[in-house]
Amino acid sequence: MICMDVKKIKIAIIGAGYWGKNLVRVFYSLRDIVDLKYVCDLDEKKLQYIKSWYPSVITTTDTKIIFNDSEINAAVIATQVGLHFSLAKEALLSGKNVLVEKPMTETREQAEELVALADEKNLILMVDHTFLYTGAVREIKNLIKNGEIGDVNYFDSERINLGLIQPDVNVIYDLAVHDISILNYLINEKPTAVSAFGKSYITKKTEELAHINLEYASGFTAHIHVSWLSPVKLRKTLIGGSKKMILYNDIEPSEKIKIYDKNVSMDYETETPQSPIYRSGDISIPRIDNIEALEFEANHFINCINRKERPLSDGKSGLRVIEILEACNRSIKEERKINL
Amino acid sequence: MICMDVKKIKIAIIGAGYWGKNLVRVFYSLRDIVDLKYVCDLDEKKLQYIKSWYPSVITTTDTKIIFNDSEINAAVIATQVGLHFSLAKEALLSGKNVLVEKPMTETREQAEELVALADEKNLILMVDHTFLYTGAVREIKNLIKNGEIGDVNYFDSERINLGLIQPDVNVIYDLAVHDISILNYLINEKPTAVSAFGKSYITKKTEELAHINLEYASGFTAHIHVSWLSPVKLRKTLIGGSKKMILYNDIEPSEKIKIYDKNVSMDYETETPQSPIYRSGDISIPRIDNIEALEFEANHFINCINRKERPLSDGKSGLRVIEILEACNRSIKEERKINL
Amino acid sequence: MICMDVKKIKIAIIGAGYWGKNLVRVFYSLRDIVDLKYVCDLDEKKLQYIKSWYPSVITTTDTKIIFNDSEINAAVIATQVGLHFSLAKEALLSGKNVLVEKPMTETREQAEELVALADEKNLILMVDHTFLYTGAVREIKNLIKNGEIGDVNYFDSERINLGLIQPDVNVIYDLAVHDISILNYLINEKPTAVSAFGKSYITKKTEELAHINLEYASGFTAHIHVSWLSPVKLRKTLIGGSKKMILYNDIEPSEKIKIYDKNVSMDYETETPQSPIYRSGDISIPRIDNIEALEFEANHFINCINRKERPLSDGKSGLRVIEILEACNRSIKEERKINL
Amino acid sequence: MICMDVKKIKIAIIGAGYWGKNLVRVFYSLRDIVDLKYVCDLDEKKLQYIKSWYPSVITTTDTKIIFNDSEINAAVIATQVGLHFSLAKEALLSGKNVLVEKPMTETREQAEELVALADEKNLILMVDHTFLYTGAVREIKNLIKNGEIGDVNYFDSERINLGLIQPDVNVIYDLAVHDISILNYLINEKPTAVSAFGKSYITKKTEELAHINLEYASGFTAHIHVSWLSPVKLRKTLIGGSKKMILYNDIEPSEKIKIYDKNVSMDYETETPQSPIYRSGDISIPRIDNIEALEFEANHFINCINRKERPLSDGKSGLRVIEILEACNRSIKEERKINL
Predict the structure, then answer these.
(1) Which tens digits make up the pLDDT trace of A10-42?
(2) Which of A244, A262, A277, A280 best tests the B interface by mutation, with the highest count of B CBs <10 A?
(3) Which domain-ending residue is among C129, C144, C176?
(4) Among A6, C318, D170, D234, which residue's CB has the most CB atoms within a 10 Å radius?
(5) What is the ipTM of this complex?
């Protein structure tokens, strides 16, 4: 009993907005292994809300109290993007393990600095790429790894809905960040070039819809369509393999993944001219665990701290995402393809 | 009675493949106003098939018989794309009105030559952009024209399925040609720039999937996604207006168009910083006539001949489509944006 | 060549309405093995229509010409239901094989008489229960026969849409006839009791919506919901097995059958009280041939004539359907359960 | 400020199972107007769970503490059905207002006794028919009340899914109770007859699927299909009016109600025989507030206590539901239609 109490990871959550509240709920639910000591926000109303639901939590507007508290093992950062870097840096410098909201930082340089700092300090730096912890994405990863769909030809994703237009980042940093993290996780290859096309109709400042093309040395390509200006909410990804194809529809409550036993190939044994051969077999919909991804992820963060293990979505994976996000913005600005 | 018989337009259909057979069926069904005299194809089997269903039709492998027959008022050309130009040219030179399958020609120069020739000869030159004759597209045209959706911000179309990979043209010439013709019809503005991205995985020759971005001086933008390598068949277009938004799903048997009374705007009267305002009202699904588009179109062709009127999808509209198709192919080849 | 010509089955189609036209098209398309000699209807306009599309066919308003023509091997009857019996009887008496539209007759007595007459004359009597010839229903039959879904617990079908209200029969005779024929085909057991509930809102004469419950000695039960007054068109059947369950959605263009590896069972080894155990595995969607059912069926009719074989949907199966239809109507009239 | 504190309604929740936990969450969230003092359950584990999330709440296994606490204004009862009557009765006798889970009681006599007791004591007796508080059902009520759909001809509901098989009540008491409460709310008429058909395949004790027919003097009819043995989850209700028809699909996240401007009527001015006339116009999908129904309902309960007003789902409406539930069970047992 005493033993177990000693092992409880003491954490602080910085940022109590929409996502911060989810993190508070989930980390509080892990109270057998986590002691959620602080929640910090500059908005007193948000702190009152937290206090009224979780009276045992200390609320504060001052991050210094957290960073100076030697009991705290880890800081979870869920503020606006512009503060991620400075808060994560301060947390690491104070010896805290860090889970930071996506995107990890605003720039590649910042991301590199955090990664180096975490390595130097031997601390966990993890990015909240929640989708990597969903049953659906893990199932797709397995299907690809096991060779079931053959060579992966393309990844084509659509993540569109009405709003919420962010005040500080564009739709790529807000929505495409998910697809890019999923893509990087599924495909063991870095893109060689990025072309992005974006447009702002409402704010006339930050892109509200965008299309991104990614090219890879192997011939694999990816396309990502994101929008805050769609009347309908769609979260749909097609993954085309040489043997099978996958439709991943995250809107579906229970049938998120459909595996189509379909492909097209050339019959190189027939006479010239060769014609494509189409094969259409059954469709299967694998059963997927419906554990909440955020809970799975929070557990993973705590386990990585306890076991000193590298998380799935570590700082390096966060950095690889930032590199692509940055290239997208450069491509839009310079109206050309950016080679990586 | 005699009167009516005199007015019957005598036509020949050249090409009896998949689409040619549809044309034969539809023009034969108009036998009150049309006399389908000839069907021509190089493949004797296809001609036998036509003969067995339509014993009254003369089948031939020789286009000269058609072009030399002074009774023939019009030729309908439904061959492979590579033959469109030469056959349409010969038909016009022989004094025949022409309905030619989409895309009108392989190159812009050819399209321009046909348009000029038809003008010179005072003959109807019409392109079979069937979608312009569907109830759904005509309804969307009305919604835009009446100002019901406000300023049109974007057009985003997805036309994907498994196959059929064409031997002579890429997926842009085969599928995006539909979206481009619809786009040109709906939007009274010519694009200023085209960027296209395409890839061939199976044949290693012609693009089997592609993404196209179109830019316009007014700020309107369009994106078209076409693929022969999708496990699912999708035909979905989003049209975002400043007042309302449209989802056009051509797969739906009866509810093809949904009009969302949704928009986002900036409140310029509030203090700085301004926040977007989201409005979400009702959705309406207008009833659409389900007259077969091809029948509607065939009637239109015959009426244009009889009344010496310019068809909706005339040679010039066909030419404007070819210009964009050609720019797409150049963009893919030169890996850069093409200014028009 | 002569041989083949000799073997061609000479047929006449009586009734050139909506379904009759389909039959004409399909039997004409089988002209390698069928000679469609006559089409008969009382409506001269319908005959003109047939003649204009199929000039080689003899059209007539007089069935006697057909029955007296010794060349004719088979009569296909697609008139209104009230004429099925007398025409089929006359055809059989004239030595013609018969394919009759569903429902076979108006009464059980009539059905029994036709079955007896066909047996006596050694002629084929087949009922046009088209759904038995679809890939979907044949696939479900296989799944049941192979034991893949275990014991079949229930069959629950919904076949509803707006109209067409029939002038001569109620919605049970028009629509539930399909479900009953499918049910009889899938389940090798006769119902022991039928309760039906129906209502007429528009015509105040014939039921426009109905619900039918069927009970069986084995414990299996079936329910059929049919309606002409639904704003949406649904064709959905659930089949619950002790091992797996099937959703058959006939509206789906390609994914008509979903097999759910789901079941509920009692764990009789645990202590009292026993709790149900739920198992949810993958879902599979088998590929189904999309041969047109009517073509498949027409071929089957001709083959049965040539080989003197009993058709799948023979007179006896038609009779079994009529028995249930009649019990439904009695149940509605007498407002009670009818034991069979 | 003091004023407001004085007015806070002090409540106890009895039963901390699946639904009880929801009630605790919702009533706790209303802490500006509610003081959730006690949560009671016989299962200590459930109480520990409540205590760990809501440390301020007193947990107890003894209902006497609650009924004897004169501070308590209201008891919310969410136990198994068998305890509803005795707990509600004791609560009313102790002078507490009562919100009781659906179905209100096991028998009509019990329901009548509670209604009489609440009247006598001048206390609020409310039944948790949650669906009456959803935006969708309130919208449908308005559409009917405003005459927009004309005379209501039929109500046809399907509420099916896999499990959860209840240990104490059958699928009618568990699921059809929702449809019956909605039906009673929408239609100002009492049924004259009930026929139900149910079957138990798994437990061999309580019905796991059922079909219910309800008849009304006006000619209106209703059908309800409920099942715990369906592989798919469906919540779909069709409501057919003489002017328009409604499809209410509660599974849809945002487009729950579709209003079809469709109807069928007889043209009594045409010659004999009259033919039905079909009208198909637009479809509209009204925007519906997505306030959580349970929160809306909890607020309503508190307001009714404060203002001494009769709740929408008062004891009498609960009683009317029980009458129909009881008739369903009798109909199944006696295998006949039950006149009410």
Answers:
(1) 999 999 999 999 999 999 999 999 999 999 999
(2) A262
(3) C129
(4) C318
(5) 0.94
Q: Does residue B248 sit in helix, strand or coil?
A: strand
Domain match, D157 and D198 both: yes
pLDDT exceeds 50 at position A311? yes
Residue contact D286–B282, C-beta within 8 A = yes
Q: Measured between beta carbons, which residues in chain D are less than 8 angstroms from residue B286?
A: 282
Residue of B276 and C220 predicted with greater confidence: C220
- d(Cα D54, Cα D13) in Å, to the nearest integer? 13
Residues in chain A with CB shorter than 8 Å from the CB of B157 are: none
Which residues share a beta bridge with A120? none
Residues 6+ apart with CB under 8 A from D121: D92, D93, D95
pLDDT digits (tens, 9 = 90+) for B18-39: 999 999 999 999 999 999 999 9
Which residues of chain C have a CB within 8 Å of the CB of A282? Answer: 284-287
pLDDT of residue D2: 42
Structure tokens at A4: 């177990």
Interface contacts B/C by beta carbons within 8 Å: 7
Beta-carbon neighbour count of residue B312 at 10 Å?
16
Q: Verify that C331 and C194 share a domain, yes or no.
A: yes
Contact list in B for residue D143 (CB cut-off 8 A) is none
Q: Do A282 and C280 lie within an 8 Å CB cutoff?
A: no
CB contact under 8 A, D284 and B287: no
Rounded to whole angstroms, how far apart are CA atoms A142 and A156? 18
Neighbouring-strand partners of residue D38: D12, D58
Burial profile B118-156: b = 16 or more Cβ within 10 angstroms, e = fewer: beeeebbbbbbbbbbbbbbbbbbeebbeeeebeebbbbb
β strands within B6-54, DSSP E? 9-14, 34-40
Closest Cα to residue C139, out of C237, C221, C1, C38? C237
Out of B281, B283, B286, name the one closest to residue D255 (CB).
B283
Check residue C165 and report its DSSP letter. P
Identify the band that residue C271 occupies on the pLDDT scale cut at 50, 70 and 90.
Answer: low
> Are residues B285 and D286, on separate chains, in Cβ contact within 8 Å?
no
Indicate the residue of A238, A264, A335 with minimum beta-carbon distance to B165.
A264
B274: nearest CA in chain A?
A203
Does residue B242 sit in helix, strand or coil? coil
Give me the residue from B28, B31, B55 closest to C56, CB to CB.
Answer: B55
**Does residue C308 lie within any of the structural domains?**
no
* Shared domain check, B186 and B161: yes
Q: How many Cα neighbours within 13 Å face the side chain of B62?
A: 4
pLDDT confidence of residue B200 = 96
Give the distance from residue C293's alpha carbon to the nearest chain D alpha carbon, in angstroms: 27
Distance from CA of D63 to the nearest CA of C (A): 26
Contact present, D149 and D201 (Cβ < 8 Å): no
What residue ranges in D62-150 does DSSP mark as E strands? Answer: 74-77, 97-101, 125-128
Tell which C residues from 274 to 333 touch D, by Cβ distance under 8 Å.
275-276, 278, 280
- Could you tell me if C215 and C263 lie in one domain? yes
Res. B269 pLDDT band, cuts 50 70 90: low
* β-bridge partners, B152: B241
The side-by-side arrangement of strands in the sheet containing A97-101 is: A58-60, A34-40, A9-14, A74-77, A97-101, A125-128
Q: Do residues B123 and B136 share a domain?
A: no
Domain housing B109: 2-128+294-307
| Number of domains chain C is built from | 2
> Which pTM was predicted?
0.95
Contact with chain A for residue D188, Cβ under 8 A: no
Contacts of A258 in chain C (CB under 8 A): 285
Residue B315 in any domain: the answer is no
Give the Cα separation of C340 and C184 in Å (integer): 14
Cβ distance B117 to B89 under 8 Å?
Answer: yes
